[in-house]
Specification:
Shape: globular
CATH topology of one domain: Alpha-Beta Plaits
CATH class of one domain: Alpha Beta
Radius of gyration: 22 Å
Structural class: alpha+beta
Number of helices: 14
Strand order of the largest sheet: 15-12-14-13-17-18-16
Strand content: 15-25%
Distance between the termini: 28 Å
CATH architecture of one domain: 2-Layer Sandwich
Helix content: 25-40%
Amino acid sequence: MGIFPHIPQASVILAPEALEAYRQDESHLRGPLPLAVVKPHGPEALRELVRRATTEGFALVPRGAGTGKAGGAVPLDRSVIVDLADWPGQIQISKADATLSAPARSLLKEVKGAALAQGLFYPPDPNSWDQCGFGGSLATNAGGPGACKYGMTRNWVLALDALMADGEIHTFGIATVKNNAGPALAQLLVGSEGIFGLILGATVRLLPAPQERLTLLLPVKDWHALLDLPAVLVSAGLLPSAFEFWDPAVLELLRQFGPEEARRMPGEALALLEFDDPGCTSEAFLERVMELLGPQAEELQLATDARQREALWAVRRQTSVVLKERFPKKVSEDIVVPRSQVRQFFEGAEALGLPLVTYGHLGDGNLHVNFLQAGECTVEEMDAHLLALFRLCLQLGGTLSGEHGIGLAKRDAFLQLADPYQIEALRALKRALDPMGIFNPGKVI
């Protein structure tokens, strides 16, 4: 503890009872007590942290709101948590450039709200959008239902400020869409989970806010009939802004234990579709959607007002919470397969005997698969299930994480299954950018 007699331009937390809350994130992995939590509010604090970490051999672990699900903010041995809650800066919008700049400490809901107040739209919408930090969404390349149409966080980042191994803050990129002066180093930091440097803020591009939304609830009697529908819509030139689903097991659990709105949900399984195209609320647009959905559209229901739409989305966003409350030892993975391979994924999982229940982002093949009875398995059995799951995804052209990242939770599987050349390339970048290994070591690679 004596290594922190004073940090300029920072507040420091050393009391063990206060450090306790920093031992885990939403992954429920739990690390040791950090040496300290430092809340910098000026560049001198960052310079001093890097100097001390380099000379005294401790790690710098970034932390925002603590909503990450991969253990990226979990401390390991001899770690100092860098909590950016006090980092200065304000959200600023340029309507002329259609850009927004914000410090990492901003909440994502504040970023999205500030854009919307100016008639603009920042699309990334992870499930925790109303709780997570802007910096964390950048570090993990957050996704969400809207990625079906708008892509991940990295699709929107123009420039990024980060603390690097020299102790200085560097800006990578510029605040406009055209910048072809060499490789885009800002994109290297987006999704890097803090292993190359600490993200302090960013400038992102915006769109005009959608003026219309069509929200549809699609109950089905045979849930496998859902699996081909996203590809059908896209192949016909319709790209939903979201296409979510619940399989029969998850839907039944929501009916039993979820919010009141969930208990009235129809069907053996269920999909939630949304469009935000100009004209999507017209009768002609709806007729086209119904024609493409075919027999599945017989029970189609429309959200008739904003209140009903919000109620439907509240059920979707509460799904993970309901499952966690009922099955506190469950294991959840956010795997991905290409949209065209979703049916093959479920056929493969059934053939392997994987005891899965599933919900999530059907529109882009990012499926939240849950092993509800994981607490009844041995560690070896659970590891075997996960490796079989990940291998199936890779065989189908997918990957083992769509939006939560690798962090600590998936590191072993990632190192075992990824292309060794790519792992070594990442490690070479780590050595080049962080030669002393002070930034979030033990995560990802």
